[in-house]
Specification:
Elements lengths: L2 H8 L1 H8 L5 H10 L2 E2 H7 L5 H13 L3 E6 L5 E6 L1 H5 L1 H10 L1
Antiparallel strand pairs: 1-3, 2-3
Length: 101
């Protein structure tokens, strides 16, 4: 591993930006920061998105512990996505990044 890659791996800001990098991740994070969200809601709100892209982004964000998936066992059965504790802790940082652009 080259020195610059080592420095990037140790930099918390670079790791955060890497976790929120992707075509739909910032938008999903923003929507989920306001309220629990369902998959089909994301599809409707994110113009130009598709099922596979949203599913991949959600899976990656869940693996990174940014969001949690909750199965709601009411009829009809559905799944909601909410920010995890780690994700909620990142909201102020995310908002600052939004204001910089």
């Amino acid at each position: 591993m080259v020195k610059s890659e080592e420095a990037q791996d140790q930099c918390p800001a670079a790791n955060l930006l890497k976790q929120l990098t992707g075509k739909w991740k910032p938008q999903i994070f923003s929507i989920a920061s306001a309220e629990p969200v369902r998959f089909n809601t994301l599809l409707r709100q994110l113009d130009g998105s598709n099922k596979q892209a949203i599913a991949t982004a959600l899976k990656e964000m869940e693996e990174q512990d940014l969001i949690q998936k909750t199965v709601i066992k009411l009829k009809p059965l559905h799944i909601e996505y909410t920010l995890s504790e780690k994700g909620r802790a990142l909201i102020p940082i995310f908002r600052q990044l939004e204001h910089l652009s």
